[in-house]
Amino acid sequence: MKAKKIGFTVYGGSGALKFEPTVTEAGDPTLLIEAANGEPNNYRWEDKIIFQVTSRELPALLATVFGWAPMFAASNHGAGNKSLMMENQGENGRIFCRISEGIKRVAVPIGPADVFSVGKLGLTQLALSSKCPIHDALEILRLTTGRLLHNQAKANPSI
Fold first, then answer.
1. How far is CA 51 from the centre of its chain?
2. Which of 16, 52, 61, 73 is the most core-located residue (most Cβ within 10 A)?
3. What is the enclosing helix (H) or strand (E) of 112?
């Protein structure tokens, strides 16, 4: 029997991102993102950057994915000073994602269908972490983190 694939990969012209469900060292469900440079059909996965979103970062990342916040940034992960930035580029119909570790950098635009998959996987992990049904997790996220980040962006448009 073939193992069920849970994660998925987003491909760009010069980079690719693999999103997978994972758990933190504390046992909290969250997202793992692997990033590799290269070109179509020849991405250098052996030189990938591995970035684990913390359970505390997941709501803000999802607020960006759902369009309630203009961007999400996380830095100072791991010994290699890893960072992740996601920016809504609605005018281009995508979310731009950049993952860095030291001088290595992978940048990939994420289109609508793949943004849906990021949102679905992230929300599933958030629901598992918060121990509530997925619909409740979405509503709580919208009424809390999403609302606050949306209002913060309106008050500070340069963010």
1. 10
2. 61
3. helix 112-130
Residue showing tokens 């990021």: 118
Asked if the structure places residue 159 within a domain, the reply is no
Which among 85, 117, 122, 80 has a CA at the least distance from the CA of 101? 80
68 φ, ψ (degrees, to nearest 5): -85, -20
Alpha carbon of 75 to those of 28, 49, 51, 112, 120: distances in Å? Answer: 19, 13, 10, 25, 24
> Is the sign of the CA dihedral 149, 134, 126, 115 positive or negative?
negative
For residue 104, list its beta bridge partners: 101
The pair phi, psi for residue 133, each rounded to 5°, is -60, 150
| CATH code, domain carrying 92 | 2.30.31.10
Structural domain includes residue 62: yes
The tally of domains found in the chain comes to 1
3-class secondary structure, 50: strand
| pLDDT tens per residue, range 64-122 | 999 999 999 999 998 879 999 999 998 889 999 999 999 999 999 999 999 999 999 99
pTM, rounded to two decimals: 0.90
- The token pair that represents 76 in the structure block: 């100072």
